[in-house]
Design brief:
With 150 residues, this protein is α+β, with helices and mostly antiparallel strands. It folds into 2 domains: 1-48; 50-149, K homology (KH) domain (GMP Synthetase, Chain A, domain 3, 2-Layer Sandwich), CATH 3.30.300.20. Helix content is 25%, strand content 33%. It is built from 2 helices and 7 strands. The protein has helices spanning 50-73, 113-126, and strands at residues 10-14, 22-26, 33-35, 79-90, 96-108, 136-143, 146-149. The strands form 2 sheets. It has a 4-stranded mixed beta sheet with strand order 4-5-6-7, covered by helices on one side. Helix 1 packs across helix 2 (113-126). The longest helix has 24 residues, at 50-73. It is globular and about 55 Å long. The two termini are 31 Å apart. The relative contact order is 0.13.
Length: 150
Amino acid sequence: MTRYPLHFETQTRADAGVTEHWSGGTHKHEARMTLAIPTEFDGPGTGFSPEDLYAAALQNCFVATFKVLARNSGLSFQSLEGNADLTVDRDENGVPWMSRIDLRFALNGVENADLAWRLLEKTSRECMILNSVRTEKVFHFSIDGANEAH
């Protein structure tokens, strides 16, 4: 059983200049990511941006949560494919924020479609990173070609 609280540490190092790349990573992994300001904010756009990482964190938390729930429920599936579309906008005070994310997931090779639909719905409610943000979340699911949105 998981014991809370859990702690995850990251690290980064950046030199001055909006066109300069920087590197970041975690204490658990030697691999480093190349990061950059996106072209939309006058950066080079040739590395992962904070916006990319934000969308990826939301999307991949869903995947991780679904995989655990599927294992615990005995759901067999071949693959889960995802696509995320993050909208950055300004709020009512003119402050930029991540206003909406559309998350599309296609579940393939499912033996029990009813259980799979229930687990997709449950995952959308129980993913801890998705539950930690105020960004509007819109889910689009398909199982072996059958579509549903919520």
